[in-house]
Fold this protein.
Amino acid sequence: MKTAIDDTAARIAALNGPDADRHARDFAHLAERMATRGIDVESVLARLGRLRIAVPSWALGTGGTRFGRFSEPGEPTTVFEKIDDIAMLDALTKANAEVSLHIPWDEPDDADALRAHLDERGIACGPINSNTFQDRGRPVEPRSSYKFGAVSNAWEEAQSRAVDHMLQVMTLGERLGSRALTVWLSDGSNHPGQQNFRAALDRTIDNLARVYAALPAAWLMYTEHKPFEPAFYSSVNPDWGTSLLIARALGPQCRCLVDLGHHLPNANIEQIVATLLRERRLGGFHFNDSKYGDDDLTAGSVKPFQLFLICNELVAAAADGLHADRAPDLMIDASHNVKDPMEDLLQSTEAILLAFAQAMIVDRASLAQAQAANDAALAQECLQDAFRSDVRPLVREVRRRAGGALHPMHALRALGYRATVASRRGSIRATGL
Ligand SMILES: [Mn+2]
């Protein structure tokens, strides 16, 4: 029996048809140029093809701001529908076969049924996220509320509630095949003097250690820092240094997660990445882009050079054998207010792949020579030469060989996916951020 996925693959192949010749010429031209520079094109294609970029379950619906939210027809209303959308994205990109779930937003009534659905759609369960920043409308005793924080709260009831939740999320994650727990804490304070900084950090580490003690052997725990919001005076894990301090206090299975939007303006994120790589403590990424704060904009849409420089550190570290045991998890963390979320996710995926492709064609030997000779101008040439190269034919060739779309976003539109699911789902309720 022919499945819907088979039909999709055939339709994608048909959509590729009209542009196949032009793509073949573009790719041949680029491959020839790379060959003359001594770059092994097939090696680059193979490494690009192994990249897997996890889609956050919360980004499949329209986001919103505290001022309003404008729904998109056909947004997924259940975690099962979210997985369906991700399977569609992966059919197009062949790079998105992983979901990052958020609990309790995506808590299934039947974990085994969700596991079966993931397996059927070919989507892996990536790092799973706990949520200790919302009481979620349920009546909660004041001392158990997250209003004044979770693991750093002065009240033990809230601390224990947060720890119990994280343990439950791990148990669920195990059943779904996840191998990592991502912990982002909203803990902090809004007013000078509100919180005892040292005591709050003590409690944070002590409580996270209770969670860490229950980590399965194959699991990692990620601490995700953020300087402000929702707390506007202090955050308990505000920066990479504190995040590393927490990870070290917990143990070798704890690593740091870098969300690009979780830095103060002009922070040198690529240097932070390099430092965490050096310490063998880089767990993964939440890719997005920003102009002012934690804007959750499309990856690479505002600062593509920064994205390239970050990928450059990752590619260089991989070449040096760092994190050979387990490469950092690559995830998107974005929120979509005016675009179709699926189109935006395709654009983010494309931007991340392009940045990696550019990083993979950096002439590392020349760069190393320039650095050793303190030749700043030549070092810049090495990076600019890669960054200015149009590597889109590389990324497209990887997709074409895997059966994906040459032009994912246009293919998604041509397939009429949004209209199809809108008629079937028939609702504008959604569960995005
Ligand atoms: Mn994040």
In short: The chain is about 50% helix and 10% strand.
